[in-house]
Write a structure and sequence with these properties.
- This protein has about 160 residues and is mostly helical.
- It has two domains: about 1-65; about 70-155.
- About 65% of the residues lie in helices and about 0% in strands.
- It is flat.
Length: about 160
């Protein structure tokens, strides 16, 4: 099995656990004289089985991520850490640029000459250029990670 397939299975298992949890919770109590919509105990047992499978998948995925190398990026784990930081860095830069141009002011504009004038404390054009570079780096890194996910076999 390829790593990408395991990642898809992990996502499916995570969704399945959440669905089972929701159904078990909604069936956990019922009014006297009625029957519950579903057997909560059976749903919990099914969730437990899915969770056991999920744990095994997560262990194998993590083992694979820590072993497979992606060129200069190091292991997949290293690349994932870099991608997370690039996303945060991009978010910080774009939020600062948006604030500097007044995007967070919700359309409040100066109407009278006597009102205060708002000035930008940051170089917006430079921030936008930095954000563009970060976005490009993020896309390229994400492509390398995706390629590795489809090329790497899942470890036992």
């Amino acid at each position: 099995m390829k790593l990408a397939e395991a990642l898809a299975e992990r996502a499916d298992a995570t969704r399945r656990v959440e669905q089972l949890r929701t159904r078990a919770v909604s069936s956990a109590r019922y009014q006297e004289g009625e029957t519950p919509p579903e057997d909560s105990a059976r749903l919990l047992a099914e969730a437990n089985d899915v969770l056991d499978t999920l744990e095994s998948l997560i262990r194998r995925i993590n083992r694979t991520n820590a072993t497979v190398l992606i060129g200069e990026d190091g292991t997949i784990t290293d690349a994932l850490a870099r991608r997370d930081v690039l996303r945060l860095r991009h978010s910080v830069i774009t939020a600062a640029a948006d604030a500097a141009v007044g995007r967070d002011q919700r359309g409040i504009a100066r109407q009278l000459r006597s009102e205060l004038i708002m000035l930008s404390a940051l170089p917006v054009a430079e921030l936008r250029a930095q954000a563009d570079v970060l976005a490009r780096e993020l896309r390229e890194l994400d492509m390398r990670i995706q390629r590795a996910n489809w090329e790497a076999d899942l470890l036992d």
